[in-house]
Amino acid sequence: MWIADGWKDYRLVDARGGEKIEYWGEYLLCRPEPQAIWPGRPNERKRADAIYHRSSSGGGHWQIINKRLPDRWEISYGDLIFNIKPMGFKHTGLFPEQAVNWDWFSGLIKKSGGKMRLLNLFAYTGGATVAALAAGAEVVHVDASKGMVAWAKENVISSGLADAPVRYIVDDVKKFVRREIRRGRKYDAVIMDPPSYGRGPSGEVWKIENELYSLISDCLEIMSDDPLFFLINSYTTGLSPCLLTNVLEYTVRKKFGGEISADEIGLKMGQSGLALPCGISGRWRRSE
């Protein structure tokens, strides 16, 4: 497992009984965690500033325990600064386990001299976009949600990167990639974080098991002759690191050679020292 262990402003305190409790800066949040199937309740739950409660009819709500909790606040990862706010469906606007991937591709970008163009698909609130810009890349950030793209802009500005070379695109990812093929635009790296299921701004339906392979195949047509890396993240239950390895083998490595690695990503639980699985990632990089 690849562990995101470089955080100072974030800490996973405990996870059990379908919940986890985490410090986001100075604020303690408790929210559902389906991977924590062992019994009990997280220690320090009674000290939480807010607890997310699921609804039996779907969705849920945040119960604010401590009135000191602001509507939004910032946390940092090195020089990167992110805006955090409790939102619907238990999210906070950041997946801290992704820091292990930020470190990986930032190292590649810096080693390459930073003169490269990166395409970030399903880019959400821009964690990867901020990390790539800070490493020196030019980034095209694409997400179907106007609100998430606006949040990404806030993160870029908060990180002192307002003048960095980034384009923000609100669009259906598949349609955007196909237009880029027609335009003849090329990218030196691709990051994608596809959802299990989703809808584009015009009602386009995305199902990962039906669409992932064809999207990666389309991306091959917009990659430069000597691309640097390709990263796929997934939180879809049932997909395995082996599956991502196979997909990358049949697509990116078949065309460009290079090296593939794939694994679970996760976070250490502070009180037990055990790792909490948080998803999977598949990485391709060109040969050194």
Outline the structure in words.
The chain has 288 residues and is α/β, with parallel strands linked by helices. Helices cover 26% and strands 33% of the residues. It is built from 6 helices and 17 strands. Strands 1-16-17-15-12-9-10-11 form an 8-stranded mixed beta sheet. Helix 3 links the parallel strand 10 and strand 11 (166-170). It is globular. The model has no long low-confidence stretch (mean pLDDT 95).
Key features of this structure:
globular, 8-stranded mixed beta sheet, single chain, 6 helices, 288 residues, 26% helix
- Look at the structure and give the mean pLDDT: 95
The radius of gyration is 19 Å
User: How much β-strand is present in the residues?
Assistant: 25-35%
Distance N to C terminus = 23 Å
Strand line-up in the sheet with most strands: 1-16-17-15-12-9-10-11
Give the fraction of residues assigned to helices: 25-40%
Describe, in short, the structure shown.
Helices cover 26% and strands 33% of the residues. It is an alpha/beta fold and 288 residues long.
